[in-house]
Batch of 2 targets.
Target 1
Amino acid sequence: MVSAMWGGTWDVRRFEEIDSTNAYLLRQARSGAPEGTVAVADHQSAGRGRMDRRWESPAGASLLASVLFRPDFDPSELHLCTVSVALAAAEACRRVAGVGAVVKWPNDLLVGEAKLAGVLAEAEFEPASCAVVVGLGLNVDWPGPPGVAGTCLNDLSSTPVDRDVLLVALLDALTGRRALLDTAPGRREVAAELRHRCATLGQRVRVELAAEAVVGVAVEVDDAGHLVVQTAAGPRTVSAGDVVHLRPG
Ligand code: BTN
């Protein structure tokens, strides 16, 4: 695969209203937009969540941002782009709001068991390159839709959080992690950070895959950032999927 060198700077494009920052960046990627292009919106009319769900948020209530990556490594490791955004978002929450969030493997941010942020990655494979768009929806001033056990920074922080300050902290925290992704030892470092911040380890889980569900205890995040689940039939390594933390027993 061929990828242009990324200069380490972000080209931030702001929108009051857009269909979806992910959809926008995928369109831009098809027209050749470079790595480091970022879309941020106050409101999305067709926000996308994982598993074909919609992602709803009132105008101005969340940090809605997507980042374009053009990574040069094996497709089996592309999920580390997503992981990097989740880890950078957790660091931004610590720095800006003093809020300690953990990662529900592979990329939701939780405070306790309440969801603070969700991440959605969408990839576009072109003949000679690969574009990965990673979108983050981080609850700032509302805890998410009814029916989802959610929380938001303004309910957890002693001072109101400015979304622009949060975005700057996010991109700042992402810069170093993105650089790590360029080498195999760096990618192992990102996976190690995920292991350190992962709330899923030790939990009984159900991992929803395309064709089946894997149930067991999450025992390891391996060097590639994959989750190892001890099932009744033995260990299973999963590289993607929607995870539910189950009650023990
Ligand atoms: C999830 O289902 O938990 C992932 C949600 C990801 C939502 C974000 S908001 C910014 C970006 N644009 C989208 O349309 N979706 C992602």
Note: The pocket of biotin is lined by residues 20-22, 44, 47-50, 53, 55, 64, 66, 108, 118-120, 135-137 (CB under 6 Å).
Target 2
Amino acid sequence: MEFDILTLFPRIFAGPLDESILKRAREAGLVQIRVHNLRDFTHDKHRVVDDKPYGGGPGMLMKPEPIFEAVEKMQRPDSCVVLMTPQGPPLTQARAQAFAGKPHLIIICGHYEGVDERVREALVDEEVSIGDYVLTNGALAAAVVVDAVTRLLPGAIGHEQSAVDDSFATGLLEGPQYTRPPEFRGMKVPDVLLSGNHGEVAKWNKEQARQRTRQRRPDLLEGEDKL
Ligand code: ADE
């Protein structure tokens, strides 16, 4: 899978993309992630990427020309163009799964007060928000998308099953988990987990996941047959 990320702050991506699973996925060739500076698609001396909104109002908008030039240079028939914006529908595990099935994502990171509407009209296939809060720009949000999608690519994480079992993939939050030692500062690992009875362990895990979801995120169970 390939990502082309258009941003005013390429350095924001250096840390997140260079660690752990993302780093290994890149090295293994599962994913190619290219980060582009939108200023490289300007042609004036000051490399201007923003301008005042028509009709007045506070702040600046991202100009359409550099974004159009960059996207049109990278776009292929199988590309999906994504705009990071708090106005988009929320990123969910289902949306991450859908993105993981696409060969090429071009991600536009918004900045300033937003982008010229013609970018949305003519270029963007999908808008995505990572939550109901406003970041200073879309770069961190794009890094979140790259992370959530890359870990779903076959071979990206060691134990394939863990992407299948993890919170949200099942529609439920994951329940409590334990590792050694069996007793730590008086706190014991539940007996069932030490029993070696896989059937009982699976039953316990499922019940704990249901309970945790009911307590913390009842909205995930609404209208579903998961209770
Ligand atoms: N840009 C600024 N805030 C954002 C958010 N919550 N999600 C996606 N992009 C953003």
Note: The radius of gyration is 22 Å.
